[in-house]
């Protein structure tokens, strides 16, 4: 069993030795190649995952153009709960930016985990709360921040992985064209806003 996954769960809840031994019954190791989908827009989300290694991008299609919504990397949980919980087609995709190793849990096994583990419900609530907080911060930034502020927030939030993300994806995330991102970066390097 992956120790990063176990440590992540233990960070959220108390995990008994017996529950830890049961984890392999709930999770499955999956590898994604670069540009391979974890979830494709239009399909119903059927699983969540813990990232052991790699980088994923959340995106949507707006007027024929890909819009980057978020990035997730090692030791984070990923999934589109709004699709999985409502069993409706997703309006977003999750795709590998680089080769990625995941530990997935199906929707059915996740419910079984909630019922079986002493603090399973608490774990689910904490994961959902984290997703909600990140989403709310990003939405607020998108509507209230300037492109420079959004780039600064991107840099702060993804400082350890920003070198792994292509510039056009960063531009998409902060809501500008790649040429505008180049100008923003030059101005910020000179200390001008």
TrEMBL record:
Transmembrane segments: none annotated. SMART domains: cNMP. Residues 11-113 form the Cyclic nucleotide-binding domain. InterPro entries: cNMP-bd_dom, cNMP-bd_dom_sf, RmlC-like_jellyroll. This is Crp/Fnr family transcriptional regulator. It comes from Chitinophaga eiseniae.
